[in-house]
Amino acid sequence: MKQLVLDLMLPQPAGFAGFIPGENAELLFMLGEWLSGSDDVRFLYLWGGSGVGKSHLLAAARDRLDGATYVDAKLEPLPDEIAADTALIVDNVDALDDEQQIRLFDHYNTVREGSGRLLAAGPLPPMLLTLRDDLTTRLGWGLVYQLKGLSDRDKAAALQQQAHQLGFELSDEACDYLLHHASRNLADLQTLIARANRYALSLRRPVTLPLLREVLGGADAAPD
Questions:
Q1: What is the 3-state secondary structure (H, E, C) of the chain?
Q2: How far apart are CA 164 and CA 34, in angstroms?
Q3: Residue 180: which residues within 8 A CB-CB, separation 6 or more?
Q4: CA angle, corner 31, sides to 165 and 33, nearest 5?
Q5: Global pTM?
Q6: Domain ranges across the chain
Q7: For 20-45, how does the pLDDT look when each residue is reduced to its tens digit (9 = 90+)?
Q8: How far is residue 131's CA from residue 145's CA, in Å, rounded to a whole number?
Q9: How far is the C-alpha of 191 from the C-alpha of 59, rounded, in Å?
């Protein structure tokens, strides 16, 4: 069934064009359903390791949905009260302290009894989080998806797409070099590509493998 769903080339929600789906096509489709207000997808929890894009997707959902209440639990507390029709987005639920866990539990019940919805994310599946049992149970009641990291092939495609947008072509050889000698985090790699482009422009040189070696070696003195 999962392979069938992926084979359908499920569309990404509008505004998410910069996110490379990889093996997350079904997750992105369900996120689009959540954004559209589907009654079948009112509660959605995303989990995965660092750097796979959880915060990127939640921030994109916030920007896409007018009136959503967004909270990064690492940086700010949940609101004291919310309306029953609130679209609540909570990132880094693992950072909630005891008081904030009770508050999210109460907010969950509020939106569940009304017409609201919840999108949340954390590093582990709900039942493996070190949070209150009643809260992890609530988070697990809805749809739960693991956000999987990109393969090297997908990362290379993303870097070549970025390079094309910047006005140059990135060779397969250059991609392979970066994936074996630089950070494997896509955001770090994309920052490196932008940096290499600035460096190349400052020297009026093309972005080639030797130039990338210079950038990785600390030769980039071009201003930001």
A1: CHHHHHHCCCCCCCCCCCCCCCCCHHHHHHHHHHHHCCCCCCEEEEECCCCCCHHHHHHHHHHHCCCCEEEECCCCCCCCCCCCCCEEEEECHHHCCHHHHHHHHHHHHHHHHCCCEEEEEECCCHHHCCCCHHHHHHHHHCEEEECCCCCHHHHHHHHHHHHHHHCCCCCHHHHHHHHHHCCCCHHHHHHHHHHHHHHHHHHCCCCCHHHHHHHHCCCCCCCC
A2: 32
A3: none
A4: 120
A5: 0.77
A6: 2-146, 152-216
A7: 788 888 999 999 999 999 999 999 99
A8: 19
A9: 19
Secondary-structure class of domain 2-146 per CATH: alpha beta
Tokens of 139: 């988070």
Closest Cα partner for 39 from 142, 133, 121? 142
Structure-block tokens of residue 198:
């600035």
* 1/45 Cα distance (integer angstroms): 21
pLDDT at 1 over 70: no
Among all chains, which residue has been given the structure tokens 């999987």? 148
Model confidence at 221: pLDDT above 50: no
Quote the Cα angle for 158-160-166, to 5°. Answer: 105
